[in-house]
Amino acid sequence: METKKKLKNYRNYFIWDYAARDDIKMRKLLRIESMAGYGICLVIIELIYEMGGEVDLDTILFEFKRYSDVDEEKVISILNNYDLFTKTNNNIYSNERVKKAIQDRIIASERKRKGGIASGESRRKNKLL
To answer: Which residues pair with residue 55 across a beta bridge?
Structure first.
């Protein structure tokens, strides 16, 4: 996936709203699923970032099986019942906030790349004159 290649430098952190727990959807998740549900949600968000904006259900469930004994039905419930994730017909999940953050990073990175090229060209030109 092209986007994943461009995001490999950002694997150490991801953008997250520091007051996300106050969002109405997250409050509902916390009230019903407690902090365990919130943690599951964050892991899913991490996976979506790592995969460049979308991830399939099998990958999500595989990751949870690798690291914990979280009930598969609980993960699926969080994916489908709190309006936090968008699902396609092919069991591919995404999150609009994550997609926007990824797109913003790509745009900023491209802008910086072009600025660096222009700066280098300008320095070369001025040095030659």
So the answer is: 93
Beta-bridge mates of residue 94: 54, 86
Instruction: Give residue 31's Cα distance to chain centre.
Output: 24
Place of tokens 């690291």: 67
3-class secondary-structure state, position 94: strand
Which element (helix H / strand E) includes 87? strand 86-87
Closest CA to 55 of 18, 23, 15, 87: 87
Per-residue pLDDT of the chain (129 residues), as tens digits, is 444 544 555 555 555 666 677 788 999 999 999 999 999 999 999 999 999 899 999 999 999 999 888 899 999 999 999 999 999 888 999 998 888 888 888 888 888 888 888 888 888 888 754
Return all residues near 58 (Cβ < 8 A) that are at least 6 apart. Answer: 91
Q: Compute the chain's Rg from CA coordinates.
A: 19
Task: DSSP letter for 64, please.
Answer: H
